[in-house]
Design goal:
9-stranded mixed sheet; 638 residues
């Protein structure tokens, strides 16, 4: 995919949308504004959000950033759907082979409005377009009519994709950017940049996400140079890194694909897995699958969903091979197989959207009766002492149960590194099921929050066939005091970097015979401070394959100093595995060299054989797969 046009579009869109949304905040909050009279609940919700964001200019800036991001997501989602024919009429796009206004506005001007979609604002839209109603001060009548059309279409798509489109009454509809019909608006540029050809690949969603937050990422890294620390507001931007597709394919094919091939050696799935690494030695101790539904996959830091969308492709082929009908497969995959957790709500929405588009691409009628993807945004949840008094059980460990209910208080910082107690999850879920709100609105709200805690905990305690991730990379020097202390307390063996904690967490999330597939930095492979983590990996586990990316850039953020590997939870560490060393500059050259190495399987091509036992024999257990047999023998024999 040519990503060159995407970055300038996404970065300029962020600037423009923040400016436009900020202007709308000022306008709707002005004393005597029409919105204060017509939508007092939405105004009150907006004022609460501003107060929660710090109040004053800071709070308004926080809300503007969040809402601008939300509208960017929705505009690109609607453009993607328009381009693929899912909307029926262009919501942000002109009619086919035409230029100019969105098709829905052109149709409304001609008196053609879909009454099943446009309900709330129909009379207002009609009045604005026929001149019987005056637009708000300073706004063109057609522009205001289009804002209302867009709001109604967002509400309509809320039924199929609530994670992406607003509920009626959400204050984000008050803050629709006012210049959407301008020639150089974000909406019009989205149509030009996201061509129908580009929108054939849902990967574009992930690239847009990375580019949209790139300036924010630069701001955060500039802050690190001033000794600023990262917390909940900084972590998503500081750690987001879109994974090149060939690395995604390597990880998915050698985890999801590998488990299927071990269970079905005669499967033709292997024919479409270009990065599959066949086992060196025979394997007998692996997770037995009764059917495709057992191939449960979690990405505990799913971002915009790149790992999950390719896993969807592979799982579709598996279900198809097993004789399932095309009408069944998309819903089965989203119901049984794919799970993601994320701390950034907007990234989580994009991941769920990307999976929904995968399903719609394989079955056009999917959006008529959709299945919501299992993408869980881990949001902060807390309870008061009064609320805890009825959430804990009689005769239980009160301290442990109160800690359970409040364990997600800092979920927007700790994310899936939180480790819920599986037994308490079951016990307290059963207790919650028998509680009643007793007609009390506040109690009902607390019970709803408690249900979300159980939902979060279930995601993080289920045993998965595969845990797969390109997790956050962040050294301890960049962590704020809250995160730093959490890492010391909960992940003492890997506290040096967030990615190390995700390796440990991935091992815990995987079934005892499952697989961990992950790409991280490569510093852990040899330095002393990661020795305990290396021992954790080598204890009772075995590498299935390993790709070491190394070049003079020496930087994991551009895949110049990374390690991608698949670890078997049940493997014998004496089992040999291929280790591939990739040293050329640039991900394209690395991809080419990996293809060659997997075919030739020679040292000249950068392919080595080694086992965990080889590393364990060396003091400190460094992952020095390139050592010769003679050098290994020196350590083994002393």
């Amino acid at each position: 995919m040519d990503t060159a046009p995407l970055k300038p579009f996404a970065t300029s869109a962020r600037t423009e949308l923040i400016r436009e949304v900020s202007a709308r905040i000022t306008a709707v909050l002005a004393q005597g504004s029409p919105e204060r009279v017509e939508q007092p609940r939405a105004i009150a919700a907006l004022e609460r959000a501003i107060a929660a964001g710090g109040g004053g200019a800071r709070g308004k800036g926080h809300v503007a950033d969040k809402v601008a991001y939300t509208w960017f997501n929705r505009i690109i989602a609607l453009r993607f759907m328009d381009a693929n024919g899912y909307t029926g009429i262009g919501v942000v796009s002109p009619a086919a082979d035409q230029l100019g206004q969105p098709a829905v506005l052109a149709a409304a001007k001609a008196g053609q409005v879909d009454g099943d979609v446009v309900k709330t604002n129909l009379s207002t839209i009609t009045g604005l377009l026929n001149g019987t109603r005056q637009p708000r001060l300073g706004v063109d009548a057609q522009a205001e009519a289009y804002e209302l059309l867009l709001a109604d279409y967002c509400r309509y798509w809320n039924k199929a994709m609530p994670f992406m489109f607003e509920r009626e009454g959400d204050f984000t509809e008050l803050l629709i950017p006012a210049n959407l019909l301008a020639d150089d608006s974000v909406l019009n540029r989205s149509v030009k940049v996201l061509t129908e050809a580009v929108c054939q690949d849902v990967e574009v969603i992930g690239w847009l996400y990375q580019f949209y937050i790139s300036e924010r990422k630069d701001e955060v890294f500039a802050g690190f140079k001033k000794n600023n620390k990262a917390g909940a507001d900084e972590i998503p931007a500081a750690t987001q890194l879109f994974t090149p597709h060939w690395i995604v394919r390597y990880l998915v094919e050698n985890s999801v694909g590998r488990l299927w091939m071990l269970n079905h050696p005669g499967s033709r799935l292997i024919e479409q897995m270009e990065f599959y690494v066949a086992p060196v030695d025979e394997e007998t101790d692996f997770l037995k699958l009764a059917g495709p539904e057992d191939l449960k996959v979690i990405d505990p830091a799913c971002g915009s969903g790149h790992m999950l969308t390719y896993a969807f492709d592979l799982l579709y082929a598996i279900y198809e091979e097993e004789g399932y009908t095309p009408s069944q497969i998309p819903s089965l995959i989203l119901t049984h197989n794919l799970y993601g957790t994320e701390i950034d709500p907007r990234a989580g929405a994009l991941a769920a959207f990307a999976l929904t588009m995968k399903a719609a691409a394989t079955r056009k009628l999917f959006l008529k009766n959709p299945v919501e993807p299992n993408v869980c945004v881990l949001d902060p949840i807390t309870f008061t002492a009064n609320e805890l008094s009825y959430l804990v059980t009689k005769g239980g460990d009160r301290h442990a149960e109160e800690a359970f209910w409040n364990q997600f208080a800092n979920a927007d910082t700790f994310g899936s590194l939180i480790q819920p107690d599986p037994k308490l999850t079951v016990r307290l879920a059963d207790h919650l099921a028998i509680l009643d709100d007793e007609g009390d609105i506040l109690r009902a709200a607390a019970l709803d929050r408690a249900a979300r805690v159980i939902d979060h905990a279930v995601y993080l305690t289920r045993g998965y066939a595969v845990a797969i991730a390109n997790p956050p990379y962040m050294g301890s020097k960049q962590m704020n005091s809250l995160l730093s202390q959490f890492m010391k307390d909960e992940y003492p063996d890997s506290k040096q970097d967030l990615y190390g904690a995700f390796v440990v967490r991935g091992i815990e999330l995987a079934d005892r015979r499952g697989l961990l597939a992950i790409v991280i930095g490569d510093t852990w492979m040899s330095i002393k401070s990661f020795e305990a983590m290396r021992l954790r990996l080598l204890s009772g586990h075995a590498f299935d394959s390993f790709v070491h990316m190394r070049d003079v850039s020496n930087h994991p953020d551009i895949f110049g100093a990374n390690a991608a590997f698949v670890l078997s939870m049940a493997g014998d560490r004496t089992r040999r595995a291929p280790f591939v060393r990739l040293t050329p500059l640039g991900t394209e050259r690395k991809e080419q060299d990996l293809r060659v190495a997997l075919v030739e399987r020679t040292k000249d091509a950068g392919c080595y054989l080694a086992s965990g036992e080889d590393f364990a024999a060396i003091p400190g257990s460094p992952i020095v797969y390139w050592l010769s047999e003679k050098m290994r023998a020196v350590f083994t024999l002393g």
